[in-house]
Amino acid sequence: MTIFSYGFMQNAIFVSVFISILCPCIGIFLVLRRYSMIGDTLSHASLAGITIGLVSKQNPILGAFVFTSICGALIEFLRNYFKKYTDLILTIVLSLSVGTAITIISSGKLHANADSFMFGSILTVTKFDMVMVLILSAISVLTLILLYHQMIYIAYDEEAAKVAGVKVQLINYVFSILVASAISVSIRIVGVLVLSSMIALPVATALQLGKGFKLTLIFSIVFSVIDIMLGLFISYYLNVAPGGFTALVSVAVLVLVLAAKKLQSTIRK
């Protein structure tokens, strides 16, 4: 009996494929805008959404999506008041999210275990989760395709985009919902605590190749697939949480690419 014959593993692979495509598509815009820490903040915000979903006996993935979308919109709203203090905005949203999550968990009203969402688990992916992943991923990718050129413009120069007539604020709000979507679909496998690594690290690895935007995006997806699949399969055999091990694989792949780049530079000299 092979690893692929297990139903839970088939579910995990299905979700992982969508994660490995969606996360770098979102991550590349966050990294180019130097907003990678927003991904980390919203990852922690998703924990509050999960606990709200569990305590209200609703689907935790849906809860994570709704609450993370609200937090993403809140970050954009607060940017009007703290224009020069992005780190302060993230601290405010992080405090709201973590405070909400800890309050609900410590209240004793949460009659479910949230650990699998914090660390990631291939055993907890359900058929309903797969449907949610498929719908959210499809909507996100379609939106990215429709807003592709405007988002590139905003990523490189937000002020110039405003002058050119791009609806920057509206697109920023839409993008914050896309980030929430990417985080929501990834929680089951990767886990809240290391989710930001899947958004940023494959992009960071692809940037080392020094290619144009489209090739960087393609290589980001390639590295993301490598990271998640290796993390998923090896963690299964090591009997460890896939999220943490996937983060380690992501760092290892980045180090290997940096080492290869350094070796290539030395050989040329």
Automatic annotation (TrEMBL):
One of its GO terms (cellular component) is ATP-binding cassette (ABC) transporter complex. Gene3D superfamilies: ABC transporter involved in vitamin B12 uptake, BtuC. This is High-affinity zinc uptake system membrane protein ZnuB. Its main location: membrane. InterPro entries: ABC_BtuC-like, ABC_TroCD. The chain crosses the membrane at residues 12-32, 61-82, 88-107, 128-150, 170-203, 215-238, 244-260. It is found in: Cell membrane; Membrane. It holds the Pfam family ABC-3. GO terms for biological process: response to zinc ion; transmembrane transport. The lineage of its organism: Bacteria, Bacillati, Bacillota, Clostridia, Eubacteriales. Belongs to the ABC-3 integral membrane protein family. It comes from the Bacteria. It is a multi-pass membrane protein. Keywords: Membrane, Transmembrane, Transmembrane helix, Transport. The gene is znuB_2.
